[in-house]
Amino acid sequence: MMFARAAARRLPPTARRFSEAPQKLDRAARRAARLEAGGQATGEETGTTAALWASVAASTAVISGGIYSLMADPEESALAKAAQSSALGGWVVANVSEASKPFVQPSREKLLPDWPPDYLNISPDVPCPHTLVLDLDDTLVRATWDRRYGWRHAKRPGAEQFLREMAKYYEIVIFTTNIAGVADPVVHALDKDGCAMHRLYRDATMFVRGTHCKDLSKLNRDVRKIVVVDKDRAAVQLQPGNAIIVKPYTDATDRLDTELEDLTPFLAALVNENVRDVPAALAKFSSNDATVVAAEYGDMLKEAKNKTDAVRKIGLGGFVRGRARQPEPDLALEPAGTMLSAAGLSAKDIAGDAPEATPKKGGIFGWWDRKNKEAEEDQKKKMEAWQKVLQKKEAQKRLAAEARAAA
């Protein structure tokens, strides 16, 4: 092309004009043809693009609706219930659940070792105590971050004292949905006395509809004797009857929080009164919120003490005669008279001792006294064995520290 242009420049002006005219006409025609073809192509491409996006949107809507109908809770969605009840939907759900088990199920079938654990050197005759499952983040500690110091953790007021007190009654399990690499140093700094016998992390949770849940049936303990203290209802949705929900500890500067301290008497009473069905006991309260449980339990103790004091003032004979004259339920003889008495809890320890002048008891009264004494002896033996376990753990920690120091 360059050689042709150079040759055209060497021609005379007239010859050059005649030689360029056909070329100019050809260029104009080609330009017009390109514009016309481009316009047609643009229209065709616009229509094709619109159809493509419409098909993509429709396919996305169908796939999203199918996934939702197969994975949503059938109790909350009529579409999910209809889809999962069909033969095809049930088959898809079953296969997806089976394929996803390694990712949504706990890492092992038994999250806790059989009781008693071999490393504790406890006699098999010692009964397994109640189990207390404690959440970590925003329940026992609060994590904060800033650009100057990075991550820092504040202990909830009374958290360490709460752990030491509960170790006298419970087999404590700290169960967090955080990963082990992040949570384990925090637990180690919080529980320096080793009050918690077990630590469980995210790999021990069950993933249910976007939430890491704590499945108590995998703990290898009697579920009826497990208490969970957590700030998240969704995390305990599989066994909500065992849970006591505390307010999340979100303000690291709040040193007036008494949530754990207020809950301590009730948790101790569950063990002292040997409640064998924790969900039944918690169901007697109007709510499983920690503040409600603590307040209503305190009211029951006051009511029981007032009734006991009234019985002492008038004497047992006067009480019976008064009941015969005026059969009103003012001075019920039941220990607590309300919620926890039906579940096995009484307020005898806090209501006070029996009157000094007590008549000789026999028959059913003697049987009741013997039964109470046997229960107290059994509880005393269990607590003594538990204290020996804690002392042994403390001695092991001390020997390990001395060995590290010597090394």
In DSSP terms, counting alpha (H) and pi (I) runs of 4 or more, how many helices? 12
Q: What's the SSE pattern?
A: HHHHEEEHEHEEEEEHHHHHH
Number of strands: 9
Low-confidence stretches: 327-365
Largest sheet: 5 strands, parallel
Q: How would you state the average pLDDT, rounded?
A: 77
Terminal-residue CA separation: 88 Å
Q: What share of residues is helical?
A: 40-55%
Structural class of the helix and strand makeup? alpha/beta
State which percent range the strand residues make up: 5-15%
Q: Could you tell me the radius of gyration in angstroms?
A: 38 Å
How would you summarize the topology of this molecule?
Layout: H1 2-9, H2 13-71, H3 78-85, H4 87-104, E1 130-134, E2 141-146, E3 150-155, H5 159-166, E4 170-175, H6 180-190, E5 196-200, E6 206-208, E7 211-213, E8 226-230, E9 243-245, H7 259-272, H8 278-282, H9 290-325, H10 339-343, H11 348-351, H12 364-406
Parallel strand pairs: 1-4, 1-8, 4-5, 8-9
Antiparallel strand pairs: 2-3, 6-7
Helix pairs in contact: 2-3, 5-7, 7-9
